[in-house]
Design goal:
Elements (H helix, E strand, L loop, with lengths): L2 E2 L40 E5 L4 E6 L11 E5 L2 E4 L2 E2 L5 E5 L11 E5 L2 E2 L36 E11 L8 E10 L6 E7 L6 E2 L19 E2 L7 H9 L3 E5 L2 H4 L10 H20 L6 H4 L4 E11 L1 H14 L17 E7 L14 E6 L12 H4 L11 E6 L45 H20 L24 E6 L6 E2 L5 E4 L2 E4 L33 E7 L6 E9 L6 E7 L7 E9 L4 E9 L14 E6 L1 H5 L7 E8 L4 E11 L12 E5 L1 E5 L5 E5 L2 E5 L3 E8 L6 E8 L9 E5 L8 E11 L2 E2 L3 E7 L7 E7 L1 E3 L3 E8 L7 E7 L7 E2 L7 H8 L17 E5 L5 E7 L10 E7 L12 E7 L3
Parallel strand pairs: 12-15, 12-16, 16-17, 17-18, 18-19, 32-40, 33-41, 43-50, 46-49
Antiparallel strand pairs: 1-45, 2-3, 3-7, 4-5, 4-8, 6-7, 8-9, 10-11, 11-15, 13-14, 19-20, 21-31, 22-25, 23-24, 24-31, 25-30, 26-29, 26-31, 27-28, 27-30, 32-35, 34-38, 36-37, 36-39, 39-41, 42-44, 44-48, 45-47, 45-49, 49-50
Helix pairs in contact: 1-7, 3-5
């Protein structure tokens, strides 16, 4: 058994200097060895044998609940990859192929913007100051959270399971339906999809008995996650909607192996259910009883509601309903017989960061989300800017004190059938000032769920029913829904009747401030940089350490009156607008920031529009509270001053508070109303993955499979990741159906030496006039050569105490990769005396295991003691020593045996072994 740790396949994917992403392939540099800087891995980490390659393994001391955010391994800040979770809830494994080469320094485990390998609250020193919730907003005249006039009926259906591409086990077709009674005529349909949660539980067990297995093992039951939105369904049904909540345990149990985290599979599942509803609407005779007894569903008015990964799933379903995906990736192949009027995304993931631009959306951001902690769902708002026509309203509401799980009653302690927990895990010794259960800002489960139901109903009333009276709850107009009280819910939006504006990504120059980058490893370039307490949803990191085209404007002043000016490359028109709407955020818990807002036209005329004031959201070092408030100033002063609002060239922000910091996300011409939305005909880009054999000789060039469908032309940004360094090069590319704008060649040089698999990854993000479905893919080069065999030759296997035991490890042939072998101590044969912790050099023992000699015990009983032997690429032998110490104790000869492990980390019977004997020196 051998383990690979470094790649030397001569292949490369390069960006051309001009004419799209294409060009002559070049050989990549040899990746450095995946060595640990000090020879040891941090506590909780080890390297284990995988089936094809070594695996980097992290074991958490506490159970990591199955959640929606993707667990990621990072080294020195760069992404190594997303590990596979084991069923025990503690162990995560990542193959160390060529893409994960490099020194394993500063290993960290992240998920949704938070560290998993540190204790919650460990960074907090001393008691935290109490945090006040935001002041309540004025009530909106229309409250969508009030129940409607209809009584409701609840039932369920189960259909034949379906097979989805890339998943080996069929996925269930099961749902719970809540529909109004006493009503005739077709009614709009609201479909709910839950997120990624445990799939199975033991009826009389605890949280440790919940798992992500599928199908559920004997003695366990499926977690009924799809029944967790019954309150929301009943509210909508009372208002005249037919509602259905579908189960996706079969996807949750398998999506770890999907490159997109299961988004395409969830889209397929949603559309398979919608196809059945379309059939049943046409001919109810073949519908399940609960559907036959309900009003006929109107498939021209469909609202999709998704929680967590379900949110990303409904976004993809809306995209796929407008722009069909590649047939080979899709589990639904019928006609689209429905219209998606809008989506509601609750604490969603957005791994692809490619929201569908022309379907209205509401994103619910829980301020105490302990799962998708970076609140990356903000990208469903920010990521739509300038992509299409901008007519669809994209709203985000920030719910102070809400966690991730409590929007689903089946994930809520005391209400769920299966074990459930508050996902914001709090350290009792260091309670979080915002999100601990007793904090003034924290919501109870019932308060949170009531707020969620209210805003789901608001989205339904605006997107489906077209009632503009509820728009002020969602578009940043500063109104509240009394039904959601006491929750403090803040909103901002882009799109709808917003016109031209000042976008940091749109080519602006800044004086008196700084055009900063949302994602950049250099603190001086990054928007938050060093010293930030918590994170910003606006700057949620993608899969690259640096991103082009994502900016904000950072202001930092030490005295009032220091203006910042943002000048556009071309004049913008504010004509016809009522106000200028700015999205601005300030540091959490700060108060009293005041800014004067001014504009200047192309004739040099300037007018101060007014003064805005903004307070920071309640926040801590564990929350994503750098979130923008929507601030509006009327354009009355500009008109009074005679400015030409058709030709505005700059925006001025002048601080009026003594000192402070602020960030401007954008500013728009705003007027009330919600225009009708029609999806534009856009090209769609999907990246595939090609797996090829290395070959024994010659050079072959492969191309990353990219499909461009749809209509028209648009721009996307393509990132090509260097497998040796993990860094990415990017280029803006114009795409059109039938074109060849994205051409990424990968050159592979064959040989007969053993090596590791190498993935050459390509990532794509929409910029303007295009949409992206499958955002990541590439070419994976498979090693096709047998691994060299390992032999052991004793050099000094019988020594006197105080000397070192020594062996030589040899390979049958040199390899193009580091070869590693793991040896663990095993008990010696019957009748023998085993070498103990007092017989070896204590520094050696600490280095290889972290253990102390006391209490004295045989080496085979030392927890964590193993010998990781790393053979550098090209080398065929290395020597291994175990230093012993001389003592004053008379004792018999003592023996030791280290045996190589198998795939499971267990000693391999009959495998290579390091055996030796130490004789007494007295």
């Amino acid at each position: 058994m051998v383990r690979t740790r470094r790649i030397w396949v001569t292949a490369a994917a390069v960006l051309a200097l001009a004419g799209g992403v294409s060009g002559t392939p070049a050989q990549a540099q040899q990746a450095p060895a995946a060595a640990v800087s000090d020879g040891k891995l941090p506590p909780g980490w080890h390297i284990d044998r995988g089936r094809q390659a070594p695996q980097l393994v992290w074991r958490s001391g506490r159970r990591v609940p199955m959640g929606d955010a993707r667990v990621e391994f990072r080294a020195d800040g760069r992404l190594l990859g997303a590990p596979k979770p084991e069923r025990d809830g503690h162990t995560f494994r990542l193959g160390l192929d060529g893409a994960r080469a490099g020194a394993l320094k500063n290993l960290q485990v992240w998920s949704g913007g938070r560290r998993l390998d540190t204790r919650p609250g460990a960074a907090v020193s001393g008691p935290a100051a109490a945090v006040r919730p935001p002041a309540p907003l004025p009530a909106n005249p229309v409250d969508p959270g009030k129940p409607g006039p209809y009584r409701t009926r609840t039932g369920s259906y189960r259909l034949a399971s379906v097979r989805l591409p890339g998943f080996s086990v069929p996925v269930e077709m099961q749902a719970v339906v809540v529909a109004p009674t006493g009503i005739s005529g077709p009614r709009p349909l609201a479909l709910f999809l839950h997120g990624r949660h445990a799939t199975c539980y033991a009826p009389h067990g605890g949280s440790d008995d919940a798992s992500g297995a599928w199908p559920c093992p004997a003695g366990t039951l499926p977690v009924p996650s799809h029944r967790g939105y019954l309150r929301d369904q009943r509210l909508l049904a009372s208002q005249g909607y037919v509602t259905v909540s579908i189960s996706a345990n079969g996807i949750n149990g398998q999506d770890w192996q999907a490159e997109d985290g299961g988004a395409q599979a969830r889209s397929s599942l949603i559309r398979l259910h919608l196809a059945h509803w379309a059939d049943w609407a046409r001919d109810p005779r073949h519908a399940p009883p609960v559907v036959r007894e309900a009003p006929r569903a109107d498939l021209s008015r469909v609202l999709l509601i998704g929680h967590s990964r379900g949110g990303e799933g409904v976004n993809r379903a809306a995209l796929d309903s407008l722009y069909p995906p590649p047939a080979g990736q899709d589990g639904y192949h019928g006609r689209v017989r429905w219209h998606i009027s809008g989506t509601v995304l609750i604490g969603p993931t957005v791994f692809g960061q490619n929201p569908v631009p022309d379907v209205p959306s509401l994103t619910v951001l829980p301020g105490c989300d302990g799962d998708v902690s970076d609140l990356q769902g903000e990208v469903y708002v920010d990521g739509t800017r300038a992509v299409s026509t901008g007519r669809a309203l994209h709203s985000a509401v920030y719910v102070t004190g809400a966690d991730h799980n409590f929007f689903n009653t089946e994930w809520t302690p005391g209400q769920a059938q299966a074990p459930a927990e508050d996902d914001f895990s709090d350290d009792p010794d260091h309670p979080d000032p915002v999100c601990s259960p007793r904090a003034a800002t924290r919501l109870t489960a019932d308060q949170q769920h009531r707020a969620g139901s209210t805003y789901i109903a608001a989205a339904a009333r605006l997107f489906v029913a077209g009632d503009d009276k509820v728009r002020p709850l969602l578009d940043g107009s500063g109104r509240r829904a009394p039904s959601a009280d006491p929750a403090r819910v803040l909103a901002h939006a882009v799109g709808a009747n917003r016109g031209a504006g000042f976008l940091p990504d749109g080519g602006v120059t800044v004086t008196g401030g700084r055009l900063c980058s949302a994602v950049d490893p250099v603190p001086a370039v990054a928007c938050l940089g060093e010293g930030a307490t918590g994170v910003s949803p606006h700057f949620a990191q993608w899969e690259t350490g640096r991103e082009a085209g994502r900016h904000a404007i950072a202001l930092h002043w030490t005295s009032a009156g220091s203006p910042a000016r943002i000048r556009t490359a071309r004049p913008v028109s504010l004509s016809g607008a009522d106000a200028l709407a700015l999205r601005v955020f300030v540091p959490p818990n700060s108060r009293g920031t005041a800014l004067d807002v001014s504009v200047t036209d192309s004739h040099g005329r300037r007018a101060t529009l007014g003064r805005v004031r903004v307070d920071g959201l309640p926040g801590s070092d564990r929350t994503a509270s750098y979130w923008a408030r929507e601030l509006r100033v009327p354009l009355t002063a500009a008109r009074r001053a005679g400015l030409d609002l058709r030709s505005v060239t700059s925006l001025g922000l002048t601080p009026r508070s003594g000192s402070g910091r602020a960030w401007l996300m954008d500013a728009w011409a705003w007027r009330p109303g919600t225009p009708a939305v029609r999806a534009a005909g856009l090209p769609r880009v999907d990246v595939g993955r090609l797996t090829v054999a290395e070959g024994d000789s010659g050079v072959r060039t492969y191309h990353v499979p990219v499909r461009v469908s749809g209509r028209g032309s648009g721009q996307v940004r393509v990132y090509v990741v260097d497998p040796a360094t993990g860094t990415a090069k990017d280029r803006l590319v114009t795409v059109a159906p039938g074109g060849h704008g994205i051409d990424v060649p990968v050159e592979v040089r064959g040989n007969t030496r053993y090596g590791a698999d190498v993935p050459y990854d390509v990532l794509v993000k929409a910029v303007h006039g295009a949409v992206v479905g499958s955002y990541r893919g590439g070419v994976t080069v498979r090693n096709d050569d047998p691994a060299p065999t390992v032999t052991v030759t004793p050099l000094a296997d019988k020594v006197t105490e105080g000397s070192a035991l020594k062996w030589r490890i040899s390979l049958s042939a040199a390899a193009d990769t580091d070869i590693g072998a793991l040896f663990v101590p095993v008990p010696v044969g019957s009748g023998g005396t085993e070498l103990s912790t007092k017989d070896v050099d204590p520094r050696w023992l600490a280095d290889v295991s972290g253990a102390d000699p006391d209490p004295e015990r045989p080496l085979s009983q030392v927890d964590g003691l193993y010998l990781w032997l790393d053979m550098p690429a090209g080398q065929t032998s290395l020597d291994v020593t175990v230093p012993t110490v001389r003592d004053q104790v008379t004792e018999p000869a003592e023996s030791v045996a280290f045996r190589q492990t198998d795939d499971g980390g267990h000693p391999m019977p009959g495998g290579p072994a390091l055996t030796g004997t130490v004789l007494d020196a007295s």
